[in-house]
Request: fold
Amino acid sequence: MKNPYSRLTLRISLVYALFGTLLVIFSDHLLYLWVDNSNRLIIFQTYKGIFYVTITSLLLYLLLRRELKVREQAETLLEQERNFISAVLNIAGALIVVLNREGRIIEFNRTCEKTTGYSFDEVRGRYFWDIFVIREEAELVKDVFGQLQAGQLNEHESYCVTKDGSRRLIFWSNTVLCDNKGSVDYVISIGIDVTERRRMEDELRKYRNYLEKLVKTRTSELRTVNRQLEQEITEHKRMEEALRESEKRYRQLVEFSPNAIVVHSKGKIIFINKAGAQLLGARGIQELIGKPIMDFIHSDYRELVRERGRHIPGKEGNALPLVELKLIRLDGLIVDVDVTGVFLTFQGKLVVQSIVRDITQRKRAEEALRKAKREKELILSTVSEPVVYHDTNMRIIWANKSAGKSGGMAPEQLVGHYCYEIWNRRNSPCPGCPVKKLLETGEVQQEEMVRLDGIWLINFYPVKDEDNNVIGIVEVAQDITERKQIEEALRLSKERFSKAFKASSFPMSIKTMTDRRYIDVNDSYLRLTGYRREEIIGRTEEELNLYVNPEDRAKAVQLLLEQGGMRNLEVKIRSKSGEELIGLVSGEVIELNGEQCMLISFNDITERKQLEQEMVRLDRLNLIGEMAAGIAHEIRNPMTSVRGFVQMLKGKDECTNYRGYFDLIIEEVDRVNAIVTEYLSLAKNKPIKTEVQNLNFIIKSLLPLIQADAIACDKLIKVELEKLPDLLLDKEEIRQLILNLTRNGLEAMSPGGKLVIKTFMEANEVVLAVQDQGTGIKPDIIDKINTPFFTTKDNGTGLGLAICNSIAARHNATITLETSSKGTTFFVRFKQGQDCATVEK
Reply:
């Protein structure tokens, strides 16, 4: 807006110009009327011009003088305002930086110079991030500056690199100043150096960790006290959090400074910011203007304030030293503050500007820290275990009452001595001294020491500074005599139990009652199941798929839970190789290391069960064989007579029309004779004629017959024969065994299937394997297939596999099978003779 005096000057000049113009136009005509003499006319014109110039100069002088006086006053006020703002910036306890829209520094107060080590001249006009930000974070700071310009970020926290290379953590509160178009002209950042506060927080955190390490080794009473200490620390953190939240409310420059700023003259307040009004408990700033400053100073500190003012000359720029005192708010509350000030000119007179910072929370935190330290010493003094604190020279600098009692003197008398002087009566450190080891390694040390008064467990804990350097050693001793006696008795008991457990010939295991996981197994158990110890320990029976029938496991657990034990429960388990084992399980509930466990023993009766089944089968075969030997002769003789008479009748001419019936009778008689022959093969004491034979030669001789059977039913034969030794075999019986197995395999497959005949050596046994690609044998009939007269075929006799087992038994061989949905394989295993030579296939 233009100066009003300039407008007046313009108006007067316009009036004067109009008047002068009229005077010039009409003055000559008037003169001609008044003066008739030309000489007198010239004189009058000369006087007129002189008068006109004089009046004009006088008016212009007056107007210019007025204008210059107004401008001089405005510049004087502007200079005073600049000096005031500059003084505020320079004495403010916060860092104040003003950046233009490009991020260049245009203002930089003394607090910034003191904190960073740079002068304003060194940073003026330079980019903020080129000076105070490390290269790796420059782009991040540029992004933050962009957010400030967009109004997206008011507060942030970052590290500032000083001139000497150190880093200071600064909390920034930011404000932008915009032009009349809304564009950002300047960014004003007010920073609070929170480095020391963070350092105090770290020290408090380390101190708390140190206390926690000590308290963990103490009694339940110490744990209670430790919780109280943690509550104190939590309260301290809560107060610091409240302090941080209050700091966020501070604003730019004076009105929004995080500290109270008070300007007073002749002992009365003439200016105070919002923070100051809040500090003194006022509802507004105007409530405090004009009030005596001494009314807010606590009576104990008023003389200190007066004395402080008398020693500092009242000259602009002179600073008042920092002092801590107490203020009385309007509501009567007392707050702790620290105050610094400076003399400056405000509104044309010399005043004192004071920056007041509320340190009530800090005082409380310091008091809490002192209280925590006193409580720590009280706690350590009252614990029953001896506690000693050594310096890095191994001298005792603190000890509790228990330590003094152990050393036979008062705790304060231990200070300055070495531990080896007091307790070991030595002039030098003990061999292998744990304190020396701790000083060398920086790690916790532990030592057991046997004394006349018992056995002591001594722990040595390092006390470290923020750079992880050891600055002291805490020694805590604990009498473990009784515990050692209990441990020794327990060790002997466990040793006896362990020897009995591991040496037992019965497979035994120990499992937890809660989750049924294996804790230990003996060697017999490992041999039985085929697992290694590390494969079992920590796992459950379900994870190992140990029980064939899960209901057996559930029943065993139920008996243990209900009765506390069980005896000879028959179960079926599965080894690592998949072999199923039958056994009698017994168990007891025991306690190990304070935990309920199950002690399980397993009596393997698999072989006994197999022998019982084999005896039943052999008795059945023996009975059938004896019946076959007894009745075969009685059946064959009549059949021979019938066949002979039928053949005779078939040859007579008068019986020509019945020859078809005769052929059918002869065929059925031959079939009965074949069945009787097979029936006789079951005889237990049937004689066999063994000769040195090679199994591969017998298979090759039968191969054309087998292939003919396969081609007839549209199936394939594959032979894989390895080099085998000779065996003592009955060739005819082995031929019958091979034919029975191959024909069973062919009948089990659909057209297009492939039958594989293999021979190979395995564990000093000659093995014959016949593998088909059928649908497998159903689990419910596997136990019945070797039973005579049991068959699943429409025209079968049920003697095929029974005869094969009889033949194998007479050759001291065994027959096993493997079956699945993809087919069945029969294995015939012959024991290798010692007197048979090995021949080529």
